[in-house]
Write a structure and sequence with these properties.
The protein has 326 residues and is mainly α. The protein has helices spanning 9-20, 24-34, 37-57, 61-64, 67-95, 97-103, 108-111, 116-137, 140-157, 167-193, 202-221, 227-232, 238-242, 244-268, 276-294, 302-323. The longest helix is centred in the first third of the chain and has 29 residues, at 67-95. The protein is globular and about 55 Å long. 39% of the residues are buried.
Length: 326
């Protein structure tokens, strides 16, 4: 099973040499790695499931929607989100290059597979075109929310604020962007596109809250494999302060409580609010999967820690799949 961070040094050296020699294929591969594909998958899933949820839950939407307008707008919106994602993860790699050379030497800027000049060009392009798209095609409220996420993502990495240096600020930043802004923004954009009037849908409210909590946990656990590099560069994280075992136990406990709250919400909600079988059964299954995977964690082994972190992302993706059925 592939885990981010597993790489062949010889293959990486060849990729770097190919990119530096001018190979377009190697440079496109470096650009793809630069966008951090595991984060892209989450953005795409949130877009697809959020759009589907809004259409299904709005009376008459599926029967009356103008697909010739809806589909192009959905594609444009997803492109804007992916550009925003690329901007945030890209600027982080530029400012974290010294840390990444120790923690994530497989990343294209740290490895030399992508030059700083090319990285800046990609970041500035994504960071400009994304806002222009949202400003041109979507309501001003969504543009404001997009720019809030854009700004939070930038100050996470860029001095002098560089909020990633503070565990609480870093967690709040990632939770806000990937939890609330993404899920609420997609839902609002679809409602606006079909000409509906916005009102809080209990399923949307649930996923926004659930994923905000989940994203906060990701913000904490993403530092677990990077503890040595963070210590060397004086980056304070919960992992450097209290250690990998304590963080992993705490993160797992928080996620299990998050799943428990979802199960209780499914049991106590009034009839018709949720699909009770999916809410209760689905979250019970995901909680069980998380607990079983946690028991296999060896906190002294970096490969095991990386696998644990990957499993958290797997559960994150699966939650969006479940969202389609709740």
């Amino acid at each position: 099973m592939a885990v981010e961070g597993d790489f062949d040094p010889d293959a990486l050296t060849k990729s770097v040499e190919a990119a530096k020699s001018g190979s377009l294929r190697a440079r496109f591969r470096a650009l793809y790695k630069f966008t951090r594909p595991h984060t892209i998958r989450g953005t795409i899933l949130a877009s697809i499931t959020g759009t589907t949820r809004a259409l299904v839950d709005t009376p008459g939407a599926l029967a009356n929607v103008n697909w010739s307008i809806m589909l192009p707008r959905a594609v444009v919106g997803m492109i804007a989100l992916l550009l925003g994602n690329a901007f945030i993860v890209g600027i982080n790699q530029i400012y974290d290059i010294e840390i990444d050379r120790m923690n994530k030497p497989f990343l294209p800027v740290a490895s030399g597979e992508m030059s700083s000049r090319a990285a800046w060009a990609a970041v500035l392009t994504a960071g400009t075109i994304g806002p222009v798209i949202v400003f041109s095609f979507f309501p001003r409220l969504l543009f404001g929310l997009y720019m809030l996420g854009w700004t939070l993502g930038a100050v996470y990495s860029v001095p002098p604020l560089r909020t990633k240096r503070d565990p609480i600020a870093a967690g709040l930043t990632i939770a806000t962007v990937r939890g609330f802004l993404l899920n609420f923004g997609v839902y609002y954009a679809v409602i606006d596109a079909i000409g509906g009037s916005f009102k809080w849908n209990p399923k949307v409210a649930f996923i926004a809250r659930f994923m905000t909590c989940f994203a906060a946990v990701i913000a904490v656990t993403k530092d677990l494999p990077d503890i040595e590099g963070d210590k060397a560069n004086q980056i304070q994280t919960l992992a450097t302060k209290i250690g990998v075992p304590a963080v992993a136990k705490g993160a797992t406990a928080v996620l299990l409580l998050n799943y428990l709250s979802a199960i209780l919400r499914g049991l106590t909600a009034s009839a018709g609010t949720f699909n009770r079988c999916a809410m209760v059964g689905g979250h019970t299954a995901l909680a069980t999967m998380l607990a079983l995977r946690f028991t296999k964690l060896d906190s002294t082994s970096i490969p095991s820690v990386k696998m644990y972190y990957k499993h958290i992302w797997d559960n994150f993706y699966l939650e969006y799949v479940l969202y389609m059925f709740i």
